[in-house]
Amino acid sequence: MLAGGTRIVVVMVGLPARGKTYISYKVSRYLAWLGVNCRVFNVGEYRRKLVGAKLDHSFFDPYNAAAIDQRLKCAMMALHDMFKWFGDVHSGVAVYDATNTTRSRRKMILDECNKHDVEVMFCESWCDDNDLIDMNIREVKRTSPDYKGVKDIESVMADFRRRIDHYGEVYEPLGGDGTRPLAKGAYPLPPTNPTLEDYNERQVSFLRKINVGSRMVINRITSYLESRIVYFIMNIHIATRSVLFSRHGESMYNLDQRLGGDPSLSPNGKKYAEALPSLISKLLGDQPLTVWTSTLKRTSETAAGLPYKKMQWKALDELDAGLCDGLTYEDVEREYPDEYAMRDENKFEFRYRGGESYRDVVLRLEPVIMELERQQNIMIVSHQAVLRCIYAYFLDIGPDELPYLKIPLHTVMKLTWTAYGCDIQMYKIDIDAVDTHRAKPKAVKRGGILKSSSTNGSANASIASPAKSQASSSKLPLESDTGLSPAPAEIDAVGKG
Ligand code: ATP
Ligand code: F6P
After folding, report:
1. Which residues line ligand 1 at a C-beta cut-off of 6 Å?
2. What value of ipTM does the predicted structure carry?
3. Is the pTM higher than 0.90?
4. In what order do the strands lie in the sheet with 206-210?
């Protein structure tokens, strides 16, 4: 997806509480999932490290000369680290997350990036919906380290609104040609830039997302990757919704631990299909829902009793085991010992002969993820490998852990949104099913060479240490052990959008 040597930075622009950090982490999670090196550089974190977190609004006053110096220092430190990171990874996408509300700041960033051979794409979130902004402050800013220990939410609201006003005094939305003069004496950063007058932002690459996407302005987006990023940012929304996942009910092949095929449900699988509608209606109430299944019998049989609109996606079909389709793991080990061993060495990259690898599945799922981002309430009924890939997208789990995630049968997973990421809640239906999970083999030394050896390990070994990310809290999924009646608190914990 990324040509060698390509280095792009998405430079966020916008007043505080406009969702810049939210967008930054979503972009980073999406690209990392597709295998692109990606990292967010959040200037607020540098500011908290350099000058501390508990600063009131006056720190952001554009006439506060001492603070201006410190803010520039933080911005430069983040840029410096970003260039260092590009030096290490060679190609990748960085997201530079700060307000960047003035032309002079943006010109400075552009100049620095040009010097370091990094392509710049600006992304502005512009929003004048005061109710939404208040909600953002209430839901996200009051839990920020900036207000740690402040109990009175109204004083947080008042201080943060004043912070926004300070930025508003000098804010120059993207795309201008410099005709709006800077307020006198305000934000003299960087120290008088003689070229600023010639800096016309209509010449640069940018996306402006206005009022959460009710309008978009796209300017001079040229490269393939930039256009993928733009398309993704255009599609994400923040409406409250429910996203549910389930594997099909236990199948006849699951009973024999056979791979692939197009079997029907086992007797217990059928019981799961019968029990599913009642759990889904408990989780959703009377909200509308669309159910997506694969084209294989076991998923449509599982979804058959769900009284909602349904759609089949070929892209949701199980990972294709090629020559090994229909075999058991023991058959594969006996008939194709080299391939069996190779899969344990690198399960994410291993492609079955005539079939697919996990990486292939991630790539074919990209349109599903894009559509999922655009949609409202969706339930996906699919397969173990496919749901691992989708789970990894939302929880920001890397390729080492992804193929070993534990996605049990007869369990519904529900996404819940956190400030900048997601958690997953599990609702287990109390109907027996076989365990199809194989633990990650332990690396052992054989004859001086590091090799893998299959071990059953602990049941949770695969998810005990998911790759921690900046983007999501990567909390372990909670398994509700209450069968058909998950604790009411869990049902109440509906995603906040
Ligand atoms: P700051 O400059 O203080 O760091 P920010 O612009 O980075 O603020 P976030 O911390 O990302 O703001 O705010 C998160 C909130 O913004 C979430 O509640 C999210 O729902 C909301 N949000 C996400 N996208 C948008 C958008 N395009 N416009 C307005 N709000 C959004
Ligand atoms: O809330 C605004 C904020 O995100 C601060 O946390 C951070 O210090 C600042 O923006 C970074 O942007 P700038 O350096 O442009 O002020």
Report:
1. 14, 16-23, 44, 99, 125, 127, 132, 136, 139-140, 209, 212, 238
2. 0.90
3. no
4. 38-42, 92-97, 7-13, 119-126, 206-210, 215-219
